[in-house]
Amino acid sequence: MIDENTTPYEALTLALEKEREAYALYKKAAEVVKDQSVQKMFDFLAKEEIKHQRLIEDEINRNWLQEF
Question: Interior CA angle at 10 toward 43 and 63, to 5°?
Answer without folding.
Answer: 90
